[in-house]
């Protein structure tokens, strides 16, 4: 939906510079056209302003004199994200409850919810107002989908999974499946029934093809506002705090606890029964085999504090030279021992 620049300034509550203009879309500085809105996120990219064809740019006041039209912002990245929401086209084309969906007679589905064809909603499940359940969604018995939540195609909620409000689940994700629990027996591995459940709190977003297991006993919990990337595995009885960021291919083993605002970069692995403190950040491909204090950065496998890891990493490039030096010193030491032994024999 097109808006004038001055309308955008009023909606976003930002100072405006330059004559009004109809804004039809959003784009990067390199690709923007004369009716597009763009943004400058960092001063290091300021050279792009000279060549951009953008109709207007969201940027800091320090660079406003370089373009004819601007929205002045103390946080251009955040305000551009707010602007994007105004131009975002919502996915989906249907309304109401499709006759091709199965809704169990004991389920409660709010009239305002949108249920696409071939969705399944089981007994005693509750789907609250303004939810959207796309094709192929499975909602098992005793599940709850909170208000204004969206489940994209082929999302699976196994029995007793609870979603808060404003939750977004992307395609192919399975929530509340069995935890990986087995115990040895004389006849092999005996499956341990997983009788707990999974709670996803408000404003959580979970990417495509993730798996979050229900608890063996009690609750697996994902805290309010946490964002989970694609291809993440979270084991049974894990507790993830509020506003955490879990990047692609993270794996968290059972019963580990993450504090609030924890960041796990891509391919981080967390062993079972560990605790990561608030504001802990773990770098890509790190392996965590012990509990970590909060408010610190960690790298490596096994993970150590980032400063220590950087010192270790700096020494790796010197290892070949160190090996040569040690070999040379060993030869010199051997020669000294030989000379000393010969001198000793001559004295005798």
Q: How large, in whole angstroms, is the Cα Rg?
A: 29 Å
| Sequence of strands across the biggest β-sheet | 10-13-16-19-24-27-30-33-36-38-39
Q: By helix and strand content, what is the structural category?
A: alpha/beta
Tell me the helix content: 10-25%
Mean pLDDT: 95
Total number of helical segments? 4
Detailed description of the structure:
With 348 residues, the protein is α/β, with parallel strands linked by helices. The chain contains 4 helices and 39 strands. It folds into 3 domains: 85 residues, Udp-n-acetylmuramoylalanyl-d-glutamate--2,6- Diaminopimelate Ligase, Chain: A, domain 1, CATH 3.40.1390.10; 206 residues, Hexapeptide repeat proteins (UDP N-Acetylglucosamine Acyltransferase, domain 1, 3 Solenoid); 31 residues. The strands form 6 sheets. Strands 10-13-16-19-24-27-30-33-36-38-39 form an 11-stranded mixed beta sheet, with helices on one face. A 10-stranded parallel beta sheet has the order 8-11-14-17-20-25-28-31-34-37, with no helix packed on it. The longest helix is centred in the C-terminal third of the chain and has 29 residues. The chain starts with a strand and ends with a helix. The model has no long low-confidence stretch (mean pLDDT 95).
